[in-house]
């Protein structure tokens, strides 16, 4: 089925958008700073890469044979993998890491090193999730498959009444699917739906590139460890799954706790393909911040506790979100628009759990 873009109502709250953009732009002018990253971003990039590759290097060196020490190293790799996703490739693939687009493209490719594929990620995240947040059949982040129900507009099955219990265990499988079959399924589907894949590479070339990247990934993540690590092959598989489980769980709880909670709206377009609100107001209604006072959490997850700021200004580097958050909050309140924020990460996770239970036990909920 061909993809059909939705249209947002630009007239409603148009003044809010203009005022907000003017105030945020003025902040950067007044402080004479760039909207892009600075030296701290490069320091963070190096840290996250080392957090991932140093434990890997120690593992394949053959110097460690104790399984529990190796397991600890690969758990650390899981944190490094999540950190790369949160704080490095995410900003780069949004064009916010550097003012140099070539630098953004290059750093954005780091996702390929941790099992993903930059092109399909950009379509799923930048094009679909950011454009159509929480809209059923458009935002793939709320369409994880039949085992989980993230939208009140999806069919409710018997097993969903327990999803607030088993859902947390499935979250850890997210990046395993991502590194195996998901990119292939998405690439084929995006071509069928008519999404623009690449201006310079054919679909066949992209598929060959994807196969090569996956082969290279499994060569260095499984084959090389099996050749050089002094442990049985099945233990290496356990280490690989453990790394992905940690990373997948961290990524899932951060993103879902910002969009699938009790304050979230799940609007539907009308038959003409129009969404009632304008795009900016839609983001306010479907997104929530959390833990704005937690500097350490914010640092590690790439400012994604400021999801409202990120969705309204995805081209601004996350190191600025804490400063522009009061501007957005004040402007939203002046125009009597929602600005959702949960005081702590634990509260956001708790609200996500309650939302899972509501979605699993009720066919429809207020949205």
TrEMBL record:
TM helices/strands, residue ranges: 36-55, 67-86, 106-123, 165-185, 206-228, 234-255
Domain Fatty acid desaturase: 67-341
Keywords, comma-separated and alphabetical: Membrane, Transmembrane, Transmembrane helix
GO cellular component: membrane
UniProt superkingdom: Bacteria
Keyword Ribosomal protein in annotation: no
Name of protein: Linoleoyl-CoA desaturase
Biological processes, Gene Ontology terms: lipid biosynthetic process
Transmembrane found in the keyword field: yes
Organism: Williamwhitmania taraxaci
GO molecular function: oxidoreductase activity, acting on paired donors, with oxidation of a pair of donors resulting in the reduction of molecular oxygen to two molecules of water
Pfam families xrefs: FA_desaturase
């Amino acid at each position: 089925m061909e993809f059909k873009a939705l249209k947002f109502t630009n007239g409603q709250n148009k003044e809010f958008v203009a005022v907000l953009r003017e105030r945020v732009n003025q902040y950067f002018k007044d402080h004479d700073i760039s909207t892009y990253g600075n030296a701290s971003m490069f320091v963070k990039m190096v840290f996250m890469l080392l957090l991932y590759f140093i434990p890997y290097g120690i593992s394949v060196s053959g110097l460690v044979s104790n399984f529990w020490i190796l397991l600890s190293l690969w758990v650390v790799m899981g944190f490094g993998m999540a950190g790369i996703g949160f704080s490095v490739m995410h900003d780069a693939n949004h064009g916010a890491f550097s003012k140099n687009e070539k630098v953004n493209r290059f750093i954005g490719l780091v996702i390929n090193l941790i099992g993903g594929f930059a092109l399909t990620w950009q379509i799923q995240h930048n094009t679909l999730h950011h454009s159509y947040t929480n809209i059923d059949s458009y935002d793939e982040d709320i369409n994880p498959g039949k085992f989980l129900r993230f939208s009140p507009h999806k069919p409710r099955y018997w097993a969903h009444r327990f999803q607030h219990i088993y859902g947390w265990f499935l979250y850890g499988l997210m990046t395993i699917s991502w590194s195996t079959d998901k990119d292939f399924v998405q690439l084929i589907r995006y071509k069928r739906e008519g999404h623009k894949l690449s201006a310079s590479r054919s679909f066949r070339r992209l598929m060959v590139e994807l196969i090569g990247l996956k082969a290279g990934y499994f060569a260095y993540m499984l084959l090389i460890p099996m050749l050089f690590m002094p442990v049985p092959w099945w233990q290496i598989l356990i280490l690989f799954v453990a790394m992905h489980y940690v990373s997948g769980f961290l990524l899932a709880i951060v993103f879902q706790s910002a969009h699938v909670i009790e304050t979230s709206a799940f609007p539907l377009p009308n038959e003409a393909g129009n969404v009632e609100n304008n795009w900016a107001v839609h983001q306010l209604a479907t997104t929530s911040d959390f833990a704005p006072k937690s500097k350490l959490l914010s640092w590690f997850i790439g400012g994604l506790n400021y999801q409202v700021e990120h969705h309204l200004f995805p081209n601004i580097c996350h190191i600025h979100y804490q400063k522009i958050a009061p501007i957005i909050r004040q402007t939203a309140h002046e125009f009597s628009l929602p600005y959702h924020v949960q005081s702590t990460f634990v509260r956001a996770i708790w609200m996500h759990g309650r939302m899972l239970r509501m979605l699993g036990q009720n066919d429809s909920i207020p949205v």
